[in-house]
Design a protein that fits this description.
Strand content: under 5%
Helix content: over 70%
Distance between the termini: 51 Å
Number of domains: 1
Oligomer: single chain
Length: 261
């Protein structure tokens, strides 16, 4: 193996490691991440969403087969999905919404994101991010098993795909340190487009007899999170790890709404 091949292999391995630690609860050894590894992790973010969504869908299918009540099944599934990502993105959503809701200047808003306390805006946002997937999954339980599995996999994948788009080339970090500084501007637009096509194709299987609805739901979710990202960048000057978490949760909720409609 040449030196160049070793570098590429190392970047891919480190990128997968960073992706697992960022998007899932899977324990991985800590290593110093590079921008090249960040590019791999963020470009493949949707894959981790598909993995979590697949687990959620399989759990829903199993509980349905056991004749568990619909709302209970959905609540357990959403709880499992949250635990699978350590609740990290919910924390980012709460911090981001609290910062934006403060109507403070850039520096104060960034300071609010760093604080561990959750304010009233953050609490409401967390309730929204948990309640909407519960209702959406409950509304999808009557579908064939393969459509239910596609619904959860595409929904959770679309949320992580929103983070991919927020890390595309040209998007700056809000501050010189932290996760945002590591991943901002790393993902080529072509890679984000390819990931979008994959999630869209998966979503096409989610709604029986209406193959167009799934891809449309994914695109609408991305459009809304993209608009949200523009607003955040205007307020704080770029992205942070918290704003990426916010986009993940908002994108997941919106995609599941569209898929379950």
């Amino acid at each position: 193996m040449t030196a160049a091949h070793r570098v590429v292999t190392t970047d891919i391995a480190d990128g997968v490691r960073l992706g697992l630690s960022t998007f899932t609860v899977v324990p991985v050894p800590a290593r110093t991440a590079t921008r090249s590894a960040a590019r791999v992790a963020m470009a493949t973010a949707a894959a981790y969403g598909i993995l979590i969504g697949g687990v959620v869908g399989a759990l829903a299918i199993g509980l349905r087969a056991a004749h568990a009540p619909g709302l209970l099944t959905a609540a357990v599934c959403v709880g499992a999905g949250t635990l699978a990502s350590r609740g990290l993105h919910l924390d980012g959503l709460a911090d981001t919404v609290d910062a934006l809701g403060s109507y403070r200047d850039r520096e104060r808003a960034l300071a609010i994101m760093r604080t561990p306390e959750v304010g009233p805006f953050g609490v409401v946002a967390i309730v929204f991010a948990l309640l909407v997937p519960v209702v959406a999954i409950d509304g999808s339980l009557g579908r064939p098993w393969w459509a239910l599995l596609a619904t959860t996999a595409a929904g959770y994948g679309a949320g992580r795909l929103a983070a991919t788009w927020e890390c595309r080339v040209g998007v700056p970090p809000a501050r010189p340190d932290g996760l945002g500084a590591l991943v901002a501007g790393t993902v080529p637009v072509a890679a984000a487009v390819i990931a979008t096509v994959v999630i869209g194709a998966l979503a096409a299987a989610a709604v029986p007899h209406r193959a167009w609805q799934g891809p449309v739901a994914v695109l609408v979710a991305l459009a809304v999170t993209g608009t949200f990202g523009v607003h955040v960048r205007r307020r704080v000057g770029g992205i942070t790890g918290d704003t990426l978490g916010a986009c993940v949760e908002i994108g997941t909720a919106l995609a599941l709404i569209g898929l379950a409609w």
